[in-house]
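Sequence only, no structure available. Ideas?
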Amino acid sequence: MARDPIGSRGFGRRPLDLSRRGVLSLGAAGAAGLITSRAAWAQNASPPSKRTGQVVIGLSQEPTVFHPAMISIEVDQGVWWSLYDPLWGVDPAGNFIPQLAVEVPTVANGGISEDGLDWRIKLRDGVKWHDGTPFTAEDVKFSLEINNNTKFRAGRRTGHELIRDVTVVSPTEITWKMAKPYAPYMSILSWTFIVPKHIADTPDPNNTPLNTSPVGTGPFKWGDRQPGDHITLVANPNYYRKGPYLERVTYKYIPDLTVLYTQFRTGEIDAVGIQGITPDHYAEAKTLPDRKVVLIGAAFIESITLNLGKPVFQDKAVRQALYAAMDRKSIIDAIYYGLPTPTESYLPRQAWAFNPNLPVNEYNPAKAKQILDAAGWKPGADGVREKGGVRLEFTNSTTAGNHVREQAQQLLQQNWQEIGAKMTIKNMPAAVIWGDYFAMSQYDSVMVGEDFLTGPDPDVSYYFDSHNVPAKGGAGNNTMQYANPEVDKLLLEGATTTDMARRKTIYAQVQSIIRDDLPLLPIFQYAVIEGTKAKLIGYAPNVNTQSNCWNVGQWYWAS
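Reply:
I predicted one. Tokens follow.
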């Protein structure tokens, strides 16, 4: 992306602190506060000497994207962490942990130059792909550069587009240069899975064997998949780290959250994944014998995300009126049992860059009507407002079978009908709605929960930079097609500024602008109810990843 560099402002003359201490000061200090109950799953037994047993993980949405560099949703990432590895991961406290890299690069160990521009990564020797092919620096080079292939449906280009002169020094060493210092890149790389060049390097990069038969270096290997039902993975006996301790992991897809909970209660499921246990089952779940059930702070924000490419949402007055007519308190209290926290930001309140000074929205349908009247939206014969031939009418979609969200949709439908806005509910199976319908901005509006952090870093270019609209050829998750030049400018500055205080000020401004523009209508920050069987050891909620299956290779059953 050709954008104005910030170097003229002088930050380039200051050494970039990418030591472990410096990286943690940029992100982990605030994010670690979200881990409120990791102790509930603290290890209290020794791993078995021989792999044994399996774990069945219940998911409300079906994983469908198995190439980990492609556009995807959060539920895919649990499978990715089982099959693939990044150069380094990130733990619940925000610490980077070497995986395919021998060590996490820092200024102190010579892995990163003082100005943040030159990177040198030392790789593990002796690592093999699941098919037995040796892992080398060529795979890393390919995995970094594929993100910048404009013919590839990359999940992320932000950050990666800054790398230059990627050089394979040896099979176990790789170097590159950055076009400019980029503070979030350490966190981005903790979510960048390395793929096998010998399999993924095909004439059509979007059509490779990885799409249906993934091959990684991770703790588990591809077993079998029954679409609409489950994915089974088997232990990788040649894994280069300790573990895995299980023989198999099965990801079971159950879109009906009541059925998902019932199977957890009866023991058919060992752990509950994304969406967790719904609030209406919390009181009972806490009493279940031989279960661990805990309320956990999470980075996900529930919102009504609007597609600004649709004419009805291009008038800011419409977005303001819909927000004013949203009875958020009733949604939280009556449907979610008062567990989540209302919010005005896309960032979790525990994040170090969270802006606590955003205006608080109050439910006020009379104000909503005044906004629409003043903007020229007049009621039609059927009560639905119109302006310039555009009716205030739209669909709202979410995952079919999520009865809690369906109740919230129905309440909002009533809220907005009162002000002359017609919302039609159009729910779909997860594999449909979160495929091209969402990724390529085919929707009107969606009810969705998203984690806008990148590991512990608050850079949100992936979601709000106007260059990252997939429907317009961008590689990101700006499916709302939001475009604000001031936000683009601030995001660039925030990502290329190393001073934490300055970054905090920048991201406070970004939150303020987005709160005013309202490309999404925030409802609440998640409070997730998670559960496992009591004897499952190793499960560790991690706000710095988008799946709590991030360390499934370390799970085992207590004897």
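The radius of gyration is 23 Å.
Hope that gets you unstuck.
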